[in-house]
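pinging the channel bc i need a second pair of eyes. not urgent but kinda urgent?? the chain im working w is below, pasted from the shared doc
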Amino acid sequence: MNIPIELILTPSELEFVARRDLSRTICVVFDVLRATSTIAIALHHGAREIVVVGEIQEALALRAHHPDWLLAGERGGRRILAAHTGSLDFDLGNSPREFTRERVLNRTLVMTTTNGTRALQGCRNAGMVLAASFLNLNATAKALSASATDRVILVCAGTGEQSADEDTMGAGALLSLLDPFRFETATEACRMASGLYADAAGDLVAAWAKSINGQRLNADPELRPDVAFCAQRDIIPYPVQVTKNLARFIRPQPA
């Protein structure tokens, strides 16, 4: 029997997912611009782990107990500052280009973003949660193909309460890598995502320039390069698993 794949396009659908028995389900979360891309690159550059939280106050409480942990995240696309926290600036924003090896090597990060970390937390009851981006898309597809599961739900983090084209394209790109004889697209949304990606695959940067997130980032000279950065394909060879709100790479076990 083929493994059914569902697709969630907007944050409002998350609450319905959370009510279901997800113990035999893999949730794959996309926040391409930019949270899941940033998580992947931070781990790639040597971060020990990333603690994913939904709210700023949760991040501050963890920092109070662990003064050496780095705070990362955004509100409105920009780094969280003392004006948001009432006390201190976050160390990092949500631009993947900030998370260099010099900044994050062997460090634990606490991260909160507007949509991406909320989506990851919303799936925490799943048997497995993967944070996917174009940076590690092939590795994510391989992890799914090697897994034993009853169902896969692709979760697009969205923009605010709306869908995000770049996340939908990410889901469509992942679907294009999966064996159709093993996985079955169970909803019309999956077929729509596949078509949207097929139309955009030749130039993702141009396609994302039409999305809400893409337009916002392109309008900011400091953040504009993030769009092309996040459109890179498969520069990271490992999938990202989020377990108990901790994001880590799934690395092959030594023989």
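so The mean pLDDT is 96. and Residues 3-249 form a domain with the putative 2-phosphosulfolactate phosphatase fold (CATH 3.90.1560.10). — does that match what u expected or am i reading it wrong
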